[in-house]
Amino acid sequence: IDCPGHKDYIKNMITGAAQMDAAILVVSAADGAQPQTKEHILLAKHVGVPNLIVFLNKCDLAIPDLIPLVEHEIREILTKNGYKGDEIPFIQGSALKALDGDSKYLSKIEELVAELDKLPLPLRDIDK
Questions:
Q1: Where along the chain do its domains lie?
Q2: Contact predicate 22/119, CB 8 Å
Q3: What fold is seen in the domain 7-115?
Q4: Which of 23, 45, 108, 115 gives 20 to 30 Å between its CA and that of 84?
Q5: Any keyword Nucleus (predicted)?
Q6: 73 burial type by CB count under 10 A (0-12 exposed, 13-18 middle, 19+ buried)
């Protein structure tokens, strides 16, 4: 569910997130956590999204020394909202550079997919 932070999209996010088993939280490494980042984490927790993976996007545009600080800030927000912030996978990349075929950033998308594959399969009613 793409929820860019605009208040008109929040209702759709809540409706869709209530059915999700996992989410990829995309945060700009260049801008850091924004108010909507905190809202998305809070809402994901409240509707019961059990698993998160964080993709720090735009790492190609960020000041390299600040990227660990952005990651630390997001981990703290995750922990304050009931997630195990220190255990959540973080992938640092650039979606645009990956789309352009940059092998450094393509490998980060592959890493993201690998993290998705590690998530536990949910138990469905038909499995009970």
A1: 7-115
A2: yes
A3: Rossmann fold (3.40.50)
A4: 108
A5: no
A6: middle
Q: What is the pTM of this model?
A: 0.84
Beta-carbon contacts of 116 under 8 Å, excluding residues fewer than 6 positions away, are: 22, 24, 53
Handedness of CA 77, 78, 82, 84 (dihedral sign): negative
User: How many CB atoms are located within 10 Å of the residue 42 CB?
Assistant: 14
pLDDT tens, residue by residue, 39-57: 999 989 998 999 999 999 9
Query: So what's the pLDDT on residue 16?
Result: 55
The token duo for 50 is 């059990």
Residue 68: name the closest of 95, 107, 32 by CA: 32
Of 87, 23, 30, the residue nearest 57 (C-alpha): 30
